[in-house]
Specification:
Number of helices: 22
Helix content: 25-40%
Largest sheet: 11 strands, mixed
Number of strands: 27
Strand content: 15-25%
Radius of gyration: 28 Å
Oligomer: single chain
Shape: globular
Strand order of the largest sheet: 1-27-2-3-6-7-8-9-17-18-22
């Protein structure tokens, strides 16, 4: 009894300690919630600024001038999103190991090679006095907002670290993080293309490099046909060693970061203003990458002498990235042009310290980068740079490969996008965007007068004297990048006859425009074609019509693959498994809906066929050089479908008796992958595969998932349709708006506004995004008001 009594007392004491610890943790967490009401000092303001929030946490900043507005926005960004801002600058600079230890070293080494912190410092010095002042004001606002929190933000408590202050150069790093996210910095397509040309018969290498297909929906109506199928004299896989084609098929990943944007002209709207829609597809997380804001301030250069701009801001930068300024509305999609080239470095000495250039011999610059590692000693990382860029590949013999990338060039970062606040009309906005320092994007905009247009935003390198699709030697005069294309020559389309414009990461123009932009992984045109056809199916538009197109999940792309799978299963009526498959796909899947097993099965079948065919076609390359990158074209449909349709025997590996055998193997792969699960193939619906995993960066820490992550939900939509949705990938925002009629527009996004789990705006709006309930574009009624008051430092 006595022992039991003490045991009981000990248990009660332990519970009390745990409760106290929990209460202390909660109190500490509560103290770092952003300030929403009353007043707060903000040194540097010329006059008081007001920050209001509506029911979704959408912020309105009303300030006396532009610099004050962005100083106040910096204050808000820091209190709501500082940890996420910190992750972005660190990911670009290669400084994540300082937070997460050795597990982040591989990422840091890879990013340090680009030396973006040094490039940010360089670009900062190239900005105008006004741009630097704006960045400094924003950084001061960030640091003040961070400093006024009553406790350390919870991620830093968990990591046992103090947050590092923000600097003007850190905003450039955030932009460089977007370069890395959207363009990658690896230029893998060019390496794979070079390997294919080196090891494969020319006709086969050409087949693996399609630049278009019947799915194309270019704005100028041009077509680019896929390469011809090689004849048996040029390529005959049947005569190659059987061993080359044996083994497991590789996994296939076709999904790439992208977006949709489209617009209709004033002739198709009730009020005569253009209507612009945008949904930028990115990796999804909690909180969302974007932060909704409306900025209002007097400005003598703006129409009417006042800026009133609403949309999505990128925490860490002082700008509204997409939205409307009451005169012009705009959105972006990733261009997937060719913004990188591999340069062959011809070494002049055995130590590889000197190399040839058109101006004579040069010495390689070596930079010693020190990577801080939490819980360990700093790591030194050496970066070797040429005049063209860093040396990233060096075979045992022969030339090295240096990466020439627009992100490395002086002046890549600027605040040009900020001038959209003052854009008076579409043409003005398009001129602004051709000079803006950002990853090259498809800008689609429309103005209050009803004009619509597309232009390639950002800088385009002028290439001369070499084939940009494979590594080239730039050590001779007149070969390489010879400056930048004048902004007025960026490809564009304005006010097309049918008053409709669309882009979806595919080819937009042909001819000289296509040559200028190149192919950095252009996506298949199926998504853009479905958007185009959706626009052409209507004669008048309101915002709800744009949302219907954005959420279009019709499985048009897969219909012909359903017919192939159905025929494949029907050839084996006596096989129990094939009969089950035939029953599960008896009807063509109409949509990528969560309850569709047919969609999942047909999609998986296509994926297996594409992987098997690409493995078959690239097997000779792998046999010649197992370490060489194998082509996985974004437009693989342009390669595989003609072969499946025509079934040339000479392009079939000796492991298959005929094309039906390849299709049967692919179908049986699907059955074996899915049938062992409970319920059989008919229960393997799309929601089971496409379940959201939209989580906080620290949401994988045991015990925190319930607090930080969103609820896992089955999602409709997929890659080759407008309604792009994956487990961690999809529309990071979705809106449609007419300039001058912002009150009629809508805007919703996943993950919520705030990064603080105890904020009422954490996950706010997420369920609306899931369900497609279009919340208003403009902020709603004011629920919170914070007055930022100027004070002396």
């Amino acid at each position: 009894m006595r022992a039991g009594k003490w045991l009981h007392r000990g248990a009660m004491a332990l519970v009390a300690v745990l409760l106290l610890a929990g209460l202390l943790a909660y109190a500490s967490l509560r103290m770092s919630v952003p300030q929403f009401d009353d007043s707060a000092p903000l040194p540097g303001l010329s006059s008081a600024a007001t920050v209001t929030r509506d029911g979704l946490g959408v912020v309105t900043v009303d300030a006396a001038n532009r610099v004050d507005a962005y100083r106040a926005l910096g204050f808000v960004h820091a209190q709501e999103r500082f940890f996420e801002m910190d992750l972005m600058r660190r990911s670009a600079a290669g400084e994540l190991s300082e937070l997460f230890g050795e597990r982040a070293l591989d990422v840091d080494r890879k990013q340090r090679t680009h030396r973006f912190r040094a490039r940010a410092k360089r670009d900062l010095a190239l900005l105008s006095v006004g741009e630097r002042a704006l960045l400094e004001a924003y950084a001061d606002g960030v640091n003040e907002g961070l400093g006024q929190l009553r406790a350390r933000l919870f991620p830093y408590l968990l990591l046992a670290l103090e947050p590092r202050k923000w600097s003007a150069g850190d905003s450039a790093l955030v932009v460089f993080a977007m370069f890395l996210d959207l363009q990658g910095g690896e230029n893998r397509e060019e390496l794979a293309r070079a390997a294919a040309r080196r090891h494969l018969p020319p006709a086969l290498a050409l087949l693996l490099d399609p630049r278009g297909s019947e799915w194309d929906a270019a704005l100028d109506g041009t077509t680019v046909f896929p390469p011809p199928i090689p004849n048996a004299q040029d390529v005959d896989l049947r005569k190659m060693p059987r061993a080359w084609f044996e083994g497991e098929a590789r996994a296939l990943r076709e999904q790439k970061p992208g977006s949709n944007n489209f617009a209709v002209g004033g002739a198709l709207t009730r009020h005569g203003a253009a209507l612009v829609a945008n949904d930028m597809h990115l990796t999804l997380r909690v909180p969302n990458i974007w932060f909704r804001a409306r900025l209002k301030f007097p400005d003598e250069y703006a129409p009417g002498g006042r800026v009133d701009i609403s949309g999505a801001t990128l925490p860490g930068t002082p700008a509204v990235v997409v939205g409307s300024n009451t005169r012009v509305a705009w959105g972006f999609t990733n261009s997937y042009g060719d913004w990188m080239d591999w340069v062959q470095v011809r070494w002049l000495d055995a130590a590889r310290t000197r190399y040839a250039t058109a101006e004579g011999a040069r010495s390689v610059q070596t930079f010693r980068e020190e990577i801080a590692v939490k819980g360990g000693k700093p790591i030194e990382w050496l970066v070797r740079e040429t005049i063209w860029g860093p040396v990233l590949h060096q075979p045992a013999s022969g030339p090295g490969l240096a990466l020439a990338w627009t992100a490395h060039a002086p002046g890549t970062f600027n605040l040009g996008i900020g001038a959209l606040e003052r854009a008076r009309h579409l043409e003005h906005a398009m001129r602004i965007m051709t000079r803006a320092g950002l990853p090259a994007q498809n800008f689609v905009g429309g103005d209050v007068a009803g004009n619509i247009g597309w232009v390639l935003a950002g800088r385009i390198p002028r290439r001369f004297g070499f084939d940009q699709s494979v590594p080239a030697d730039w050590s001779h005069a007149g070969i390489g990048w010879t400056g930048w294309l004048p902004p007025g020559q960026n490809p564009r389309v304005v006010n097309p006859p049918d008053a409709r414009i669309w882009t979806a990461n595919a080819r937009n123009v042909g001819g000289d425009g296509a040559m200028l932009l190149g192919d950095g992984g252009l996506t298949l045109g199926a998504r853009g074609k479905q958007i185009r056809d959706g626009l052409r199916a209507r004669k008048q538009f309101v915002p709800a019509d744009m949302l219907a197109i954005q959420r279009d999940d019709r499985a048009l792309f897969l219909h012909r693959w359903w017919e192939v799978l159905r025929a494949t299963a029907a050839r084996h009526p006596g096989d129990t498994k094939m009969r089950e498959l035939a029953t599960a796909i008896a009807h063509a899947p109409e949509r990528a809906s969560i309850d569709s097993a047919g969609y999942r099965l047909v999609r998986q079948f296509r994926t297996r066929v594409v992987a098997n065919v690409l493995d078959m076609l690239t097997a000779p390359l792998h046999a010649a050089d197992p370490n060489a990158p194998r082509p996985t074209p974004a437009q693989s449909e342009a390669i595989v479908w003609p072969l499946v349709a025509q079934r040339p025997a000479h392009l079939l590996a000796p492991i298959y008796s005929n094309w039906n055998a390849l299709l049967e193997r692919s179908a049986r792969d699907v059955i074996e992958e899915l049938r062992p699960m409970n319920g059989g193939l008919a229960k393997r619906n799309w929601a089971e595969r496409n379940t959201s995993a939209i989580n906080h960066p620290l949401g994988s820490i045991p015990g925190l998932g319930w607090l930080l992550n969103t609820k896992a939900q089955g999602l409709s939509g997929d890659v080759h349709m407008p309604f792009v949705q994956g487990t961690t990938f999809g529309a990071s925002e979705r809106f449609a708006v007419s300039p001058g009629h912002e009150d009629e527009g809508y805007f919703h996004m996943p993950g919520g506004q705030s990064g603080h789990p105890l904020s009422p705006f954490y996950r706010a709006g997420h369920e609306d995004w899931v369900a497609g309930r279009a919340t208003p574009f403009l902020p709603g009624p004011v629920l919170h008001r914070l007055e930022l008051v100027p004070t002396a430092h």
